[in-house]
Amino acid sequence: YPAKDFAALAQARAHVPATVLDVRQDDEWREGHLENAVHVPVQHLPARMPPPTAGPLWVHCASGYRAAVAASLLDAAGRDVVLVDDEWRRAADAGLRVVG
Q: Running along the chain, 100 residues long, what does each successive block of 10 average in pLDDT?
């Protein structure tokens, strides 16, 4: 699966809807998250796989480590996945709307 940054996600979202999976912890999610993102903390992912998406599922966390674990699990389950290997603090600067 490819690894990209938040700027690439913003660019992709400008052209087509992109489903984003946030695998950070609940407290991190409450502090702010991407608009329309799906939230499943990485430790719950094996039991709570998100439904299939029309395009790739963009997976992020705070720095890329947990997202890499989640992307590996999703890839092994046959999902089309893109790892967001970037720091969360760069999301808004990349042009993504952060809410919460």
A: 98 90 98 96 95 92 97 96 97 96
